[in-house]
């Protein structure tokens, strides 16, 4: 099939090595991405402790103040303030926290739903498999941004709906990968052996098949994580995501655009943060995929 | 070949029907859209009147049939907000979208094919690494961040380029670059990979052994063989990426195209416009995919000769 060109098949035979071996094998860019990922995750977890202000705390006497080093800088607001006198640094940290949380939740939902449907489709076969794969094909055919627009228009914009929308993203890739793996594994002697030893269907699915599809799923998870970060910030940027005053990186860029001629720092800090996240996740995703894909390793 | 053709078209029709049905029932899940559109403070009679005007008091099944029937008269229903036929509203926006799409595709092809070939041929020197870095950066930078930073630099600081609208050729520059960013990144990678695959083939060694010039080897023997893979990628992936990209790019630059229309109607919940817009764009993507599938099958003798 030609349409697998953008998503190289992910072979199953990867072994997780120790942390030191991973560090030794990585090139400088990948090491930078790993360090960056650790910093970003720590910053997201520790946001309530390291942010100097609350994300929605306003100060009318400190509106639109520039970052440190510029004229009119106000003490304590390191990266300046926005149009309501909220601290840009604090909002960026909380935005990072929310974006990463939403992305993790969304990617996990997609992984679990897609993985389960994929396993069931591969094992049960027949009409059920046709239905699942039909749904997969349909979702691949429609650009996901359109699905997201539709869902958000229908259910309104809230954090719960956002998680749902992000969860719908990417399940089809997991389902497709897992079903392919299950179909391949089902031919293997050890499954036949398990079956003739009298193992039940669920036991075969979870004890024998599941452990074998974990590693392609992990790779798929990382790849969809970076896409979901992009999707969430894009939707928030367009004003369709999590609603103000909640701080998300995309919404900060979207709303801050109106103040760009006079207060560009409102936009620059969250925009750079989005760049750092996508950079780290993309590099790590590619690295993980290359490590587990035998076909690519030869290059 | 005929079976293959029939199967591709049938599959497309089924997907089309599924999309139409899903879109319809999804928009009925949230209850009556009247309240969102009109807002509070209308009388019960007015509300009832509007509900029956838009046929929302009928059973879901009747509404579904009316929805399908609205495809037949070519009007696709009335916009809740503008009170005009949806076909008219969407129709006005097709040409600007196409213009932007065309300029982006031209820029994408002009840059990514040479870059991809360079990246494959010089994969072991700094040129190859530079190509990969470009491709990677294009992929990792979200289009709305790229657009925002470009507006900040070129419109507000340097005052060179206009921000919104599509009046002059100058207006095309930033939207085209934004739209092309991710396309260039994707296509460069795949051109490079397709060329790498081809460069390792036996017939390439044969061509060199015959004493052909390096230029002939790479362009006549290499690129021509790689172009089959590249073409399929252009069709299959570019259509989807472009559809998603146009939504964001048009919304940022207030480009009067379909993407901008979709975002606006999603925000004000103008369901008839949103429904038809989503369906129209999906159908366009489906159609391009099917066309590419068929062209690809035709180019590949293994499928053309009947082992689909």
Walk me through this protein's architecture:
- The complex is a heterodimer of chains A (299) and B (308).
- By secondary structure, chain A is an all-alpha fold.
- Chain A has one domain (28-298): MetI-like fold (Orthogonal Bundle).
- Chain A is 69% helix and 0% strand.
- Chain A is built from 12 helices and no strands.
- In chain A, helix 5 runs antiparallel to helix 6.
- The longest helix of chain A has 37 residues, at 88-124.
- Chain A is elongated and about 80 Å long.
- Chain A starts with 18 loop residues before the first helix and ends with a helix.
- Residues 1-15 and 294-299 of chain A have low confidence and may be disordered.
- With 308 residues, chain B is an all-alpha fold.
- Chain B has 2 domains: 2-69, no CATH class; 88-304, MetI-like (MetI-like fold, Orthogonal Bundle), CATH 1.10.3720.10.
- Chain B has helices at residues 2-28, 34-38, 44-53, 60-72, 86-121, 126-140, 143-157, 170-199, 202-209, 214-252, 258-268, 271-299, 301-304.
- In chain B, helix 5 runs antiparallel to helix 10 (214-252), helix 8 (170-199) packs antiparallel against helix 10 and helix 10 (214-252) packs parallel to helix 11 (258-268).
- The longest helix of chain B has 39 residues, at 214-252.
- Chain B is flat.
- Chain B starts with a helix and ends with a helix.
- In chain B, 38% of the residues are buried.
- At the A-B interface, helix 4, helix 5, helix 9, helix 10 and helix 11 of A face helix 1, helix 6, helix 7, helix 8 and helix 10 of B.
